[in-house]
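Internal tracking record. Fields below are filled automatically when a chain is submitted to the structure queue. Please do not edit lines marked as system-generated. If the sequence contains nonstandard residues, flag them in the REMARKS field before resubmitting.
Queue: standard
Priority: normal
Entity type: single polypeptide chain
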Amino acid sequence: MVSSEFAFELAVCQWAERAWSPAEDAAVLVARQFGTKHRRWDTIVLECDPAGLRDRAKFGVESFDSDLLHVLRNAPADWTYYRDALPDPGYPWRYVRESIHEAADRDAIETRKRGNRIEIRRVRPYPDWVRRIIAIENKPDLTASAARNLVPQLQRDIALSLADEVWVATETTDERVEPILLADLPAAAGVLTIDPEQATAEPVWQPRSLSVEDPGTRILDRPADDTSAARFEYVDTDWKRERRLAIAERAYARGWRAYADTMRPDCRHFQLSADETGVFPHCAAKECLPTAAECRGRCPSYEPEPPAWRSKAWPLDGGPGKAIQRLLARRRRRQRPGLSE
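SYSTEM-GENERATED OUTPUT FOLLOWS
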């Protein structure tokens, strides 16, 4: 059994990056622990158009938020006054001007002034690089109470349908019938059983493809009793399209190897361990795979790297902790073809 849900998440991400099989030829990107204002997903799998993914790399590794995407996707091929070129954003134009300047600073568009008017021109078209978004909820030990708490989250995901598919991943057991199949989960959610030691997964229940091109329903409140009315609101397709692309952008920039950013790789006990299933953080002091809550400056076993380590030249330029972060960054960039090292 895995030591923590964090360890299980890393196992799921390792497996998905290596073995996820899209229905068509597609590149796969995996990210973890992020989402929207109303929902945080454990794992996101993006099925991408390979050519579009390479074109996306021409804009750099940093993500574009919704405001920047509004500018980037509508920037014209020829010089045009920005108010004539961009659709009405629905918020004050001064914020659009801020996004224009930020996009220009990142060389994503070009700007010039003609009198007091700001004109914009695209550097290159923003590609249509995302095909499908798959959301995975990780519950290694799916107890009865955990299943009950999971159901409302899955119902909200399915009703809103930001993702093309919704899955639940749990650790495989030796029982003849996996306990998760006996849980009262929504039929539209798929079920994966993961064997972290063998780095394998088996889909034991196939999900239903969700209607991402149709309006969605945001469930605001669903009372536990059957007599009270639920509260909900509809969201239109334009909002869903924008949110899906913003989610994909964040996944592109972050990936799933960013865990060292919230841990203490500068501790002398922080290491990376590798086996046939992948690469994982390891604490030499506690002999375990630590979580972000454990691996912090207040940990009783925390010891900063000796200054002598950080003064050494390559390959320990900046100390072993910095070398680990560079290694993880290189592996993250490797999944994004077209990015320069």
